[in-house]
Specification:
2 domains, mainly alpha, single chain, 5 helices, elongated
Length: about 100
């Protein structure tokens, strides 16, 4: 089990928000249509997103140790490198602001 939502869960959440909060607020048929198109696109993302991969047992153990206060040499460097790798994919602009 991961602490963050995967692509399927994110798409489902946004689609549900559009369906329950946004769509009912529009009287304009053009905006209702566009909202439905967006909802359909999110349904495709949900359907076609790969299932989340297994969590690395090493990551689980590292998290347990850190929570218990057992931080060892190299732990923070390893975490920093992992976060950097993820930011390079997810949000490179964010990373560039702090380097």
């Amino acid at each position: 089990m991961t602490a963050r939502p995967n692509a399927r869960e994110l798409a489902a959440s946004v689609r549900e928000f559009l369906e329950t909060e946004i769509l009912p607020a529009f009287e304009d048929q053009r905006m209702r249509f566009r909202t439905r198109v967006a909802m359909n696109a999110l349904s495709i993302v949900e359907r076609e997103s790969p299932p989340p991969g297994p969590t690395d047992p090493g990551d689980i153990e590292l998290a347990r140790r850190i929570r218990a206060g057992d931080v060892r040499d190299g732990d923070l460097e390893a975490l920093t490198a992992g976060v950097r790798e993820k930011l390079l994919v997810a949000s490179p602009g964010y990373l560039e602001r702090y380097e």
